[in-house]
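Something for you to look into today, if you have time. Could you write out one complete protein record for me, on any chain you like? The space below this message is yours for that.
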Amino acid sequence: MESKRLNKAISETGFCSRRKADRLIDDGKVKVNGEVAGLGVQVTAADKIEVNGQVITKEVENIYLAFHKPTGITCTTDTEIEGNIIDYINYPERIFPIGRLDKPSEGLIFMTNDGDIVNKILRSKNNHEKEYTVSVKQRITPVFIKQMSNGVAILDTITQKCKVRMLNNYTFSITLTQGLNRQIRRMCKQLNYDVTKLKRVRIMNIKLSKLKKGEYRSFTTDELQEINRLIADSSKTMEASVD
């Protein structure tokens, strides 16, 4: 049975980051099979891990959900933050979001308890598409569409070329394979456009479709099989996805 460092095992449950796990271990708040554990301990799937007396390694089937995040909800597992996505969705098992969707934005986000699929989807060189519809205050021009498509200077880099399509005078569709911090809003701002609404409508092969705000559904068998095919050759370089 494969073993891994305790801090990694804790982070893969979605309980907290590796760094925070190290602090919890160092403070003597983590037990493995009933014994207080030290830094560097190796564990397997058969070991029972407790943090502050809470068992976090309960064996459950893998969960994969498509969730329509409303605006005002923060994509964090920190339940001390008001309006966090975990308390909002109130799922009976421990789950966590794959990537992020900023607080003022709405739309599709994946929720899971499978740490392995999270890592593979977020790795930067996979070119996994994310599609958005965006409304802006200023009237959209062909020049704006061309500039957005060809790349915009933000965060000390030039964004990668992407697919941008005008939907009406004040709304456009954009498909990204990057996950820079608040990328679309920053791109628009750089071109003197103000975003009034941002909605993610697709991640990879899964569409938001008619899923209402605050609702979630499980992936279909076909959807999960296609995602596993898309991430089969996942690279080892990871990039945090923040849109």
In short: The chain is about 25% helix and 30% strand.
